[in-house]
Design a protein that fits this description.
Ribosomal Protein S5, domain 2, 148 residues, alpha+beta, 5-stranded mixed sheet, 30S ribosomal protein S9, Ribsml_uS5_D2-typ_fold_subgr, ribonucleoprotein
Length: 148
């Protein structure tokens, strides 16, 4: 017998961002929404850590704040992100892609045009090239020819 699904109102916007081999699942909450663990002054979280600790440094901070600065929503939303795969920069760009998609779903008529123009809604298709057989361990390197 199937379980009866409760008709719960979603209080967040969900989006998936990807870059290289990293993928970020983003939940975007309005700051005014209150629940047991989300308060007005909550900080954005990545894998349970504060985003400033997970992505340290001023350069990374500028990158992950870009979607909020472009849409003028710097302290209006709270983000919970689960990111897996890739390195730190790939994960950071996956987070930016996911947050941009979530913002465009939250308010499409206001944010979609701005984010699209900045190129934040476009998935970057470049991925690591696989290594080929007979190339000496690298993707494009040619094997050294014998000298004698």
């Amino acid at each position: 017998m199937p379980k009866k699904s409760k008709n719960l109102k979603k209080n967040f916007v969900y989006a998936l961002g990807r870059r290289k081999s990293a993928s970020a699942r983003v939940k975007l909450y309005k700051k005014s929404f209150r629940s047991g663990n989300i308060k007005e002054n909550s900080e954005d979280l990545v894998n349970g850590q504060v985003i400033g600790r997970y992505f340290p440094g001023e350069a990374m901070r500028k990158i992950w704040l870009r979607p909020f600065e472009l849409t003028d929503t710097l302290n209006k939303y709270f983000v919970m992100i689960k990111v897996v795969g890739g390195g730190k920069m790939g994960q950071l760009e996956a987070v930016v892609h996911g947050v941009s998609k979530a913002l465009s779903v939250a308010n499409p008529e206001k944010f979609k045009r701005v984010l699209k123009k900045a190129g934040l809604l476009t998935r970057d298709p470049r991925i690591r090239e696989r290594r080929k057989v007979g190339t000496g361990g690298k993707a494009r390197r040619k094997k050294q020819s014998p000298k004698r």
